[in-house]
Amino acid sequence: MKKYLLLLFVSVIACKSFAQARFNVVEYAVKNTDTLWMHHYKPKVSNGISILFVHGGGFEGGKPINQAPFAEKMQDLGYNVFVIKYRLLQAGRGFGCDIPTPEKLKAIRAAIEDAADATKYIVAHAQSFAIDPSKIFVSGSSAGAEVALQIVYNPFAKADKERYAFFDTFKFKGLMSFAGAVVDINLVTKEKSVPMLLAHGSNDQVVPYGTAPHRMCNATQPGWLMFFGDKTVYERAVILKIPAVLYTYTGAGHEIASFMFNEFAAMDDFMKKVTKGETLKTHEIIKKTKW
After folding, report:
1. Which residues, at least 6 apart from 102, have a Cβ–Cβ distance to it below 8 Å?
2. pLDDT of 231
3. Is the CB of residue 64 less than 8 Å from the CB of residue 22?
4. Residue 168 and residue 110: Cα distance in Å, rounded?
5. Position 284 confidence tier, pLDDT thresholds 50, 70, 90
6. Sequence ranges of the domains in the chain
């Protein structure tokens, strides 16, 4: 009887785990001791659009599985969603003002490399994934948004031409940044551009909304690194006539990095309009008394 109950318990747990697993695990690279993979959320009925999503966590933490609420909802809306695991070079060390700037840049660079390799893998296997490689959007939150922006406006491309030559002919259909930034605003050019959805809290003290040091470090600290946030990216997009929409959450802080769990209608509208070649709205200011 005890053996039967144990088998029944194991079967129930196994069935529950199977029911909860709405993704396939796909390995896309092995780098030294790191095996890199992605969760592929395949929709029952596809709308033809795919999303490559990069999680946040300050280049020291974060997990693909934590993005399940976002990925599952987009999956239900017909999107193929690929949530990638990437190298976290600052794991156990942090990413604060005490971390020397060269080490921060090395961590950012590694994450962009991994996102690039994941992109190449997805495109190379587009047929087996049953996706259209011309309709892939890149997105991310916080550190992941920095990766999403900078795989398009890449500060490391010239130093690693062989790796990034792929992007001379491939372009994402668009990008979505939740509390993101770039390290070089001059790299945001018309030539490299794709349509952008940018969302940021106006009082973000971690990743600046406008132009300011990351985590508001002062210039005497080892980790001082100037960032150009979503507002600055948007302002440059306006000047260059790059299609972009900015959602400004007045008074909000870095919590907007997780608003991809809330703004499903806005994301769905943006991606479908871009795919159809329709005009985007430009700047929407979201005001609330409490976030």
Report:
1. none
2. 97
3. no
4. 20
5. confident
6. 24-287
- The CATH classification number of 24-287 equals 3.40.50.1820
Place of tokens 């985007």: 280
Instruction: Return phi, psi of residue 45, to 5°.
Output: -125, 115
Q: What distances in angstroms separate CA 236 from CA 183, 200, 229, 289, one per listed residue? A: 14, 16, 11, 29
In whole angstroms, what separates CA 32 from the centre of its chain? 24
Report the mean per-residue pLDDT for the chain. Answer: 92
Cα(233)–Cα(198) distance, rounded to whole angstroms?
9
pLDDT digits 0-9 by tens, 142-196? 999 999 999 999 999 999 999 999 999 999 999 999 999 999 999 999 999 999 9
The confidence band for 12, taking pLDDT boundaries of 50, 70 and 90, is: very low
Confidence (pTM): 0.90
Q: What is the Cα–Cα distance from 202 to 204, expressed in whole angstroms?
A: 6
* Cα–Cα distances in angstroms (integers) from residue 144 to residues 46, 148, 181, in the given order: 25, 6, 10
Cβ neighbors of 214 (< 8 A, separation 6 or more) are 104, 181, 206, 207, 208, 223, 225, 226, 227
